[in-house]
């Protein structure tokens, strides 16, 4: 992204909750707790998947990618938001703002595509369980994950870096971080092309993966209804419940943010939605997958058992 305002460096003020000091203090505490829980929970998931051989399967390969992604996603914005809560006037340069915005967009789209890959994995496991190991080979899992990371870069970072915007008037971003929509609303240049570009990118990165997930779960539902065993149906629903919960949380907030009609002002609703998919969802993912997943809970017990055994031997 480039600016047409000359060679002078442009700075923005991230308004956040700076006009409400008491609310900002509470927000800082909640944000700090959420960030620590996100790092701890996702690190624990990665540790369990790495050390427990029972979790060395495609489903948990994608989950490890998701956990690593969530740690990066929150780290791209939350530390800066915490610092901004401690200063009187939170200022950020255009270059830093664009870097934060591009990183957040990139990681958000990666999550969209990874959730679609995980839906495909669940679909194969339930619809065609006898050939699951044949279909979901390690090479295919790596290809699906690698494609998610690469495609997201082409859909987000490349368009952002080629944008040319002109900023005029006040440089106050009524947001906690440099969100694309918040920054575009400060531009005084013609945005019709960028709005069409954003709509097309959102369709490819949000609606297309979401449609694929809906189609996959449609096939899963048909396969489950054909099962004669109630135990088999319960196991199938249990396998999909955690992933489906994450899909609803993430896609629901992201689509309501980027696919709905926009005006020239940032509303408090937009701030809440961005906190939902940028902070709360990465924090909730480890809880959802650990509390609803017997294999993850079993891996945790085995890990704790090894540590206790080592202490006894020592």
Automatic annotation (TrEMBL):
InterPro entries: GPCR_Rhodpsn, GPCR_Rhodpsn_7TM, Olfact_rcpt. The chain crosses the membrane at residues 26-51, 57-74, 105-128, 140-161, 203-225, 237-260, 272-291. Keywords: Cell membrane, G-protein coupled receptor, Membrane, Olfaction, Receptor, Sensory transduction, Transducer, Transmembrane, Transmembrane helix. Residues 41-289 form the G-protein coupled receptors family 1 profile domain. It is found in: Cell membrane. Its main location: membrane. It is a multi-pass membrane protein. It comes from the Eukaryota. Putative odorant or sperm cell receptor. This is Olfactory receptor 13H1-like. The gene is LOC101398980.
